[in-house]
Design brief:
By secondary structure, this protein is α+β, with helices and mostly antiparallel strands. The chain is built from eight helices and 13 strands. 32% of the residues lie in helices and 20% in strands.
Length: 329
């Protein structure tokens, strides 16, 4: 079923802890002036074990995929901030992307672009921050969205349902943006990458999950409530796209709520090598005045996130378009 209140509270607490951590770092950096003209370097922190053995990818596939990842990094590096390379050292780090999704095909990974700012210590020595520096990420070949890029809820573990913002715009074939900030770069020549889940499908999943509740009294109460909620739904609504708008089930058809979706197993072209990149998503804020304000504040306060703020401010739709050739080949 959907993420429990306890789990959500834990996630919120973890997020607040991270925010507080970076806030403290920002306060420390205020006493240590940035060196915005310090020549920077860039490196790819290549690792060949970024996908777990149980994923089943061969060494040949991973090696070929590393070349594709290098193409992604080189494309992102054409950005003016990463071309100029002043005031920070840049690093691209590859991360494993959790469990393998049932419908997945290619090698999944997260490419984290780190911005390690240079600043001056009180003794005049110039150093850089390499301890969890501010970063911006791209998710590759992971069709089930996760993380802060989409902040999706899960409906169940099988089938793998999730939610995405209802507001969607297609910039051009191959580029979709959800809620104005969550970008998906895909192959428009393939079938839809996500499919809407019907109200009946969603309710069936909720019933299945709650039948697993170990405590009989709690299980009986929840199932009774779900049955009453299901009876109140008109039969003509059973096959409509489900949204996160219900009561106990959280399943409904009201507009203005996140859509409940599932991966389309037909999207990935299985005639292409598994090492190919067929799907990318990331978050890009389009509110330029807001970004400019963040950049100015970071510079004024000697914030360690200054380089990242400059990078995020520089991103635009043309940058997104530059990623499309990496997928359509």
């Amino acid at each position: 079923m959907f993420v429990s209140d306890k789990t959500m509270k834990m996630k919120i607490l973890a997020t607040c802890t991270v925010v507080f951590y970076f806030f403290i770092l920002g306060l420390v950096a205020q006493e240590l002036p940035l060196v915005p003209d310090h020549p920077g370097t860039f490196e790819i922190l290549t690792r060949t074990n970024y996908t777990a053995p149980e994923f089943g990818f061969s060494k040949t596939e991973i090696s070929a995929n590393l070349l594709k990842i290098t193409d992604v990094v080189n494309t992102v590096r054409k950005n003016r901030v990463l071309t100029e390379m002043k005031g920070f050292d840049g690093r691209a780090r590859i991360y494993t992307m959790g469990m393998k999704d049932v419908e997945s095909y290619g090698v999944p990974s997260r490419i984290s672009f780190e911005f390690a700012s240079w600043f001056r210590l009180k003794d005049g020595k110039e150093v850089r921050n390499l301890i969890e520096p501010p970063e911006w990420s791209l998710i590759i070949n992971k069709l089930v969205p996760q993380g802060y890029q989409f902040s999706s809820y899960r409906l169940s573990s099988k089938p793998d349902f999730f939610t995405v913002p209802e507001k969607k715009e297609t910039i051009e074939p191959g580029i979709d943006v959800y809620d104005g900030e969550c970008y998906v770069v895909y192959n428009p020549n393939q079938p839809d990458y996500w499919l809407p889940v019907t109200v009946k499908e969603a309710f069936d999943a909720v019933f299945a999950e709650n039948r697993k509740v170990p405590d009989q009294m709690e299980r009986d109460f929840v199932l009774k409530s779900l049955k009453e909620e299901w009876k109140a739904i008109q039969q003509e609504d059973w096959n409509k796209p489900a949204t996160l708008s219900g009561a106990i089930s959280r399943v409904g058809t009201q507009t203005g709520f996140p859509l409940i979706m599932k991966v389309n197993p037909a999207y990935c072209d299985k005639n292409r090598p598994k090492s190919d990149i067929q799907f990318i998503y990331f978050r890009m804020i389009g509110n330029k005045p807001y970004l400019q304000q963040n950049t100015a504040a970071a510079l004024k306060n000697n914030g360690i996130g200054y380089a990242l703020c400059r990078f995020e401010e520089s991103l635009d739709v043309e940058f997104v378009k530059s990623l499309l050739p990496l997928i359509i080949q």
